[in-house]
């Protein structure tokens, strides 16, 4: 069955536009991850606040793309006679002309490449943030000495004697 010959070419055109929008969103997300890492490394608090605000404002656009995707899945599911959860690009390509199939496949490859790159960038960002957290925890432990189990004692003249390896500040939680 050739779905393009049954007047659903508009659906495919919308699908291609949606796939292009998804690719743009992935590239923007990659840029945000790069900016986040740069902001953390440079300690650019103002830049990171601006990035957070940008991500918040882009939420409406992400929601609109997701709504369009769900609508297209429902229309395609009705055309194929299956559940919307069963609709994916591979299934849609089975019903397309070779030219449209090639266009969808090219966009699918682009999306897969971007998703792989996103996984790598996400992992790099998560590792950087994890290392920053670990470093901050070590720094705090060295100042406060929260991992030191020793007790601070005082001699007869009132001077504090700390066990070796204790922090700079005597603190009890």
What do these coordinates show?
This protein is mainly α and 173 residues long. The chain has one domain: Methane Monooxygenase Hydroxylase, Chain G, domain 1. The chain is 70% helix and 2% strand. The protein has five helices and two strands. A two-stranded antiparallel sheet has the order 1-2. Strand 1 and strand 2 form a beta hairpin. Helix 1 runs antiparallel to helix 2, helix 1 runs antiparallel to helix 3 and helix 1 runs parallel beside helix 5. It is elongated and about 90 Å long. The N and C termini lie far apart (72 Å). The mean pLDDT is 84.
Radius of gyration: 27 Å
For this structure, the CATH topology is Methane Monooxygenase Hydroxylase, Chain G, domain 1
Specify the CATH architecture. Up-down Bundle
Outline: elongated
Distance between the termini: 72 Å
Strand order of the largest sheet: 1-2
Task: Give the SSE order as H and E letters.
Answer: HHHHHEE
- Please, how many helices? 5
Give descriptors for this structure.
173 residues; mainly alpha; Methane Monooxygenase Hydroxylase, Chain G, domain 1; two-stranded antiparallel sheet; 70% helix; 2% strand
Characterize this entry briefly.
The chain contains five helices and two strands. By secondary structure, the chain is mainly α. It has a two-stranded antiparallel sheet.
